[in-house]
Amino acid sequence: MALKFSYPGEIGAISFLNSSKQPDLFKLNKGRFPLKRKENGTAIGRSARCSAQAPPPAWPGRAAPEPGHKVWDGPKPISIVGSTGSIGTQTLDIVAENPDKFRVVALAAGSNVTLLADQVKTFKPQLVAVRNELLVDELKEALADCEHKPEIITGEQGVIEVARHPDAVTVVTGIVGCAGLKPTVAAIEAGKDIALANKETLIAGGPFVLPLAHKHNVKILPADSEHSAIFQCIQGLPEGALRRILLTASGGAFRDWPVEKLKEVKVADALKHPNWNMGKKITVDSATLFNKGLEVIEAHYLFGAEYDDIEIVIHPQSIIHSMVETQDSSVLAQLGWPDMRLPILYTLSWPDRVYCSEITWPRLDLCKLGSLTFKAPDNVKYPSMDLAYAAGRAGGTMTGVLSAANEKAVEMFIDEKISYLDIFKVVEITCDKHRTELVNNPSLEDIIHYDLWARKYAASIQTSSNLSPILA
Questions:
Q1: DSSP assignment, residue 469?
Q2: In whole angstroms, what is the distance from residue 465 CA to residue 166 CA?
Q3: What is the DSSP letter of 235?
């Protein structure tokens, strides 16, 4: 197996390209939101760390169980918020395969009552929540012949009760968007460890959620593949050993396109991921690389690394899920087939490792992989990186505004209301507008307010035929 780089040492020399080299088709930053991805130069002989103003990270560059950490003799009780979604169903696959390791005490779903009813019959939770209150009668009818009838609570309060169920030790947060914030906060206040699959918990809520987690001595365990890879790599590191985080990215639909061709992008083009078949929103985020920019912000909050110490690396094969560099220049990587079940499993079993069958969990055969290649991302092709780093450095409510504006812009693009290149412009204009109202230490209400504001403001932006954004 060969590890190929575009030129010697490239992985250690990924740098911010001068924004003055951007072609006219990217007319960003006309005196507006200050784009700044990487500082000039890097301090020598220091560990990756947060600034003094940042909230305390979930894992400050190392991970180790505390003395007296409980080891479960029987099945660990868990609850799942978002049980009918991708994260929820994969979590339940893990529970089904490991009934001696995990048991479900509570489930919450949105509106898929047919699947929720099947899950109730299989896993027999004590409590079930359906967010859509109009569907509770349908759920009760589907469970009419069920011998084990759980308590059913509806609406947002029902989801919150599932998150803080008294018997649950770990809560899997699989709800998408800011709808997952209140249940996560409720779980933290109830002392539950968080298996984190909801991005907004840290991207929007980091300044509020992290101090709360420290107050209640709650562990936030990352369930997405990149941050799980970093988390696995920092196991056992001594204090101050982390030097740099390397986030790998597939590069998305346009990794092989010349930048000049991006003005011709259609929705169908952006939805053709070279590696996977995913939902529309995440596929577009992969094409723009906004998904990776948001993961940079998450990595900052999770592991306490300054933005100068977090790099993005294009890795088309998606076998190395991320890497860390230590003070002595060693690079540690986590490899595996792309399978979300592995990081989910580790959030449930940490610090233990659970044996997995070769039938349902194919093992990685390095000799059959072929080459693993890496290259620096092009910030001309991916202006999202500059926007994400700038929002991260601004901190406070800016990162949540970035995420919400991007989500709305992607929706507008998929609905063919704006062009592909306008996604970046809509996000930049929204972030720029927010600068005058930025809240450095937001409350939960502030976070939710500016999430809604960003979506509304982004939706108010229209673009002219020459791709120069103007307000409606």
A1: E
A2: 56
A3: B
Q: Which residues is 108 bridged to in the sheet?
A: 81, 129
Cis, peptide link before residue 351, omega less than 30° from 0 = yes
**What are the sequence ranges of the domains in the chain?**
76-222, 252-288+378-460
In angstroms, the CA 118 to CA 126 distance is 14
Residue 285 and residue 410: Cα distance in Å, rounded? 8
**pLDDT-based confidence at 6, cuts 50/70/90?**
very low
Residue whose C-alpha is closest to residue 385's, from 264, 231, 247: 247
Q: How many Cβ atoms from other residues are within 10 Å of residue 190's Cβ?
A: 16
| Structure token pair of residue 288 | 């723009």
Listed range (312-316, 318-322, 362-366, 414-418) with the worst mean pLDDT: 362-366
Helix axes 384-394, 290-303, angle to 10 degrees: 30
Average pLDDT over residues 438-456: 96
Supply the pTM of this predicted model.
0.89
- CB contact at 8 A, 194 and 184: yes
Looking at domain 76-222, which of 3.50.50.60, 3.20.20.70, 3.40.50.720, 1.10.287.1080 is its CATH number? Answer: 3.40.50.720
CATH architecture of 252-288+378-460: Orthogonal Bundle (1.10)
Each residue's pLDDT tens digit, 78-123: 999 999 999 999 999 999 999 999 999 999 999 999 999 999 999 9
CB-based burial label for 106 (10 Å; 0-12, 13-18, 19+): buried
Q: Do 49 and 139 form a contact (C-beta atoms < 8 A)?
A: no
Q: What is the largest CA-CA distance in the chain?
A: 67
DSSP 371-389: -EEEB---TTT-THHHHHH
**Is residue 23 predicted with pLDDT exceeding 50?**
no
